[in-house]
Amino acid sequence: MANSSSSEKKVFIEYREFIQYPDAKVTDLFAKYGLDPNLPHDIVYNQSLRRYEITQRNEAAE
Question: For residue 32, which of 19, 13, 49 has the smallest C-alpha distance?
Answer without folding.
Answer: 13
